Amino acid sequence: xxxxxxxxxxxxxxxxxxxxxxxxxxxxxxxxxxxxxxxxxxxxxxxxxxxxxxxxxxxxxxxxxxxxxxxxxxxxxxxxxxxxxxxxxxxxxxxxxxxxxxxxxxxxxxxxxxxxxxxxxxxxxxxxxxxxxxxxxxxxxxxxxxxxxxxxxxxxxxxxxxxxxxxxxxxxxxxxxxxxxxxxxxxxxxxxxxxxxxxxxxxxxxxxxxxxxxxxxxxxxxxxxxxxxxxxxxxxxxxxxxxxxxxxxxxxxxxxxxxxxxxxxxxxxxxxxxxxxxxxxxxxxxxxxxxxxxxxxxxxxxxxxxxxxxxxxxxxxxxxxxxxxxxxxxxxxxxxxxxxxxxxxxxxxxxxxxxxxxxxxxxxxxxxxxxxxxxxxxxxxxxxxxxxxxxxxxxxxxxxxxxxxxxxxxxxxxxxxxxxxxxxxxxxxxxxxxxxxxxxxxxxxxxxxxxxxxxxxxxxx
Length: 461
Prior knowledge:
Residues 1-33 and 128-185 have low confidence and may be disordered. It contains 22 helices and no strands. The chain has helices at residues 15-28, 40-55, 60-68, 76-92, 98-107, 113-127, 169-172, 200-216, 219-232, 237-249, 253-266, 271-283, 287-300, 305-317, 321-334, 339-351, 355-368, 373-385, 389-402, 407-419, 423-436, 441-460. The protein is globular, with a radius of gyration of 25 Å. Helix 12 runs antiparallel to helix 13 (287-300). It has 461 residues and is an all-alpha fold. Helices cover 65% and strands 0% of the residues.
């Protein structure tokens, strides 16, 4: 059973049919397990791709298609909240960037909900400022903590924690007291055979160029730079890691996996690479292998918060719910306000039919992140299982406020209203569901039941 479990029988309203609908829709139209949440560095990388798309002429349908490919992580409200945070940081620098401002202004016209509202406001403010510095930091670790050469950072994901700092001159073998870089040592005339400590600066320069292009969203340029650095220094672990991260962000997961495997062969003691490998395997729907990678990561770095979180997700996919709960709780020890961990802990408890505990876990998630449709939806499912239909309706209303086009919320809301003897309101809810999926036979059947219930109530009065 997927992450969206069945709710119990809904009175005498042909419960078997309702269960069949729930099983099909909640497992097929929703992911089998929630993807790890985006962090600010992930948003920044993806946002740069949106900006590039806008430069190339993207319209609303292109932005919507791009965000829909992210599943629940493409929610307009979540993106609006991130852009608000991004904008506050940007405005504090009191810097002007006409290009960024113009693209944000265009995004503000595309009617993408709160995302467009915030973009319009931020674009206007950026265009009105008077400084002239660059909109994005040139440092690859600006949006997330760079990986130390001594110890990896926590809370990193593919495309963030794999952004590593260039090796220092001492680590690269450059001795400044004796080294003089030859002026004719360029990538074109260097080879691994003539690479010396004196001209390793060229390799470092290519690596830095890749990092800057990576952050700017020029993925093709980043790949070319990393590949050039690897031709000169095939054991350059950081370049392998970042090359894998670029491929990951291009959703070339099989290729990214090959690169991460190569990096692990070179350095099997790097926790970030094990994490990125696990994350890639998660998205390739290979949960057992992903779990093995997360466990190796945690052996190397027991306080790697996102590894505990993602391990919990794949353990739920493997139906090892007790272990999943433990894994999410380990993440919460490291970050008590980690809303996604509270929500995913609730999902595991929901599978175990421990509804009261699951509701309490969703409550903790929502206390930290009120605009969290998944938590509201699953909280509503818990109340459906407990036959507390008014509370279920209240939860589903919150989902609909945040995601008005989420078909399952309208359907389950309609079923809850039928159990509250409110057939007209149930019909209205089913109609909204049918507007989204007109040929859904189950919803058509539920609507017919609600009509019969309404007619029966009128006859009795």
